[in-house]
Description:
323 residues; Porin; alpha+beta; 2 domains
Amino acid sequence: xxxxxxxIGRFYKIYITMVRNIKLVCCFILAMGLSNQSxxxxxxxxxxxxEFGLIGGFSHYSGDLTQKHFETRGFKPSFxxxxxxxxxxxxxFRLSAQYGSLEGDDxxxxxxxxxxxxxxxxxxxxxxxxxAAEFNFNHLDTRDKSGVIPYAFIxxxxxxxxxxxxxxxxPSSALAGYIGPAAYAELADRDEEWVELQPLGTEGQETTEFxxxxxxxxxxxxxxxxxxxxxxxxHKWTLGIEYGTRFTFTDYIDDxxxxxxxxxxxxxxxxxxxxxxxxxxxxxxxxxxxxxRGNPDKNDLYGIFGVxxxxxxxxxxxxxxxx
Length: 323
């Protein structure tokens, strides 16, 4: 009996020792896991960030009614919101929504003679929604309170526009004699009115004779390409300066693309305002001869210069996890 009790005692001591060892091993494994998790989370905080802020600057148009890409007379204010997410050091993903305007005028071309002037012009509100990837050419350590990061970006933009022009009533216009004084007189009450151009089909869109010319959509897609600099002011605030050109797939931002159409044809299809806004030159153009109104082989562009000011919501510096 005494031998059995001694055996049970030895077994109990061995059992207690095993339990203690298992507890130590478990605690060690748990501590290592928590340490690795803490280190991983600190690395994530160092290399990831989410920013939100404002963007403001100007927008401009380049197309059939400008002679150069940067026509300063067409610069218009632009503003909006921007958010950036940086999962690592090399690439930043961004979303932005901006509101601005575009403008072009044939009279800005100082090399034209009076006979060559089309007297065409337009203005349009602009909504630009862009998603893009920024490729950073430099990175800053979290210990750096300030610094500069140059970058380039490319993405996809969805934009909305609606070209319009001001109608100026002139009873002595050549158009009055062409479509008839009575028809033209119907427009007298609309003198100096800003008229939306797309519904007028100024280049014969969807008429019987030009049914292949479809009415252009006022919502289009563009490819934004540009670059800039991000200036880290401190651990939370970043100032940026950038410029991006939107390469569009339409030639109708300005409502000008192909050829003139007989004013009588337009007047009978869409009314006298269509004829009046289609050909605003002193001498009406013949539909068959000398009828080029724009250049259909080259799409319109628009650009946005922006100054961004963003606040870093998280990822500013290493931070230990909370359990």
